[in-house]
Amino acid sequence: xxxxxxxxxxxxxxxxxxxxxxxxxxxxxxxxxxxxxxxxxxxxxxxxxxxxxxxxxxxxxxxxxxxxxxxxxxxxxxxxxxxxxxxxxxxxxxxxxxxxxxxxxxxxxxxxxxxxxxxxxxxxxxxxxxxxxxxxxxxxxxxxxxxxxxxxxxxxxxxxxxxxxxxxxxxxxxxxxxxxxxxxxxxxxxxxxxxxxxxxxxxxxxxxxxxxxxxxxxxxxxxxxxxxxxxxxxxxxxxxxxxxxxxxxxxxxxxxxxxxxxxxxxxxx
Length: 269
Prior knowledge:
Blueprint: H1 5-14, H2 18-22, H3 26-47, H4 66-69, H5 77-86, H6 92-99, H7 105-130, E1 133-134, H8 140-149, H9 153-158, H10 161-181, H11 193-199, H12 203-213, H13 225-253, E2 259-260
Antiparallel strand pairs: 1-2
């Protein structure tokens, strides 16, 4: 079935994998649905209404939902909408429950946040397929996803090894300095969700923080804590450019290849 690229992306945001199924990519469709919904379900099983702790800040009307729009889960629109419908009433006891920390919440918040990035990557992949995909060393969406986990990895696979290594070292070093200056506490979604929204664009970095540094208790603010938070956030924003460039490099690498029809039988995922 032929889809316009924009329509394919919108369908993918609503129901992960639907656009891939319609354009004849069943394996990709299964992987998209399993990864996006699976990650969200894994985190939500522990967090439940704690996922909405940002919306418990004092505000009126739709403004109380505004902080949630700044978090990566919102990109996973389908799962987030279902979770919102399942949310309980905002009684004082419920809001207190939302604000209480949960064991393992750092990993759970990482999982729900990662589902938003997965949704974005699969939507971009659906857009690329519907527009007449061309086969190169790697799909542009996959190159961007690899660079989200490990900055520069997408460039390396797409054929620009030196550039990928250089970009990766700069982003990783910036994030590492941020962790050091922040005494290990500069990347903590539960405490600094708005900063984490920018930091999360470096997926490997926030995964490291969620596993090792975030759960550690902070008895006092390190002397250069603010600088650490800023550096980790800058690293995430830098990686946004790295991911975008990785997409461009992979797309350019495939430019000379023959286009693959969106409805053609799928040889691989």
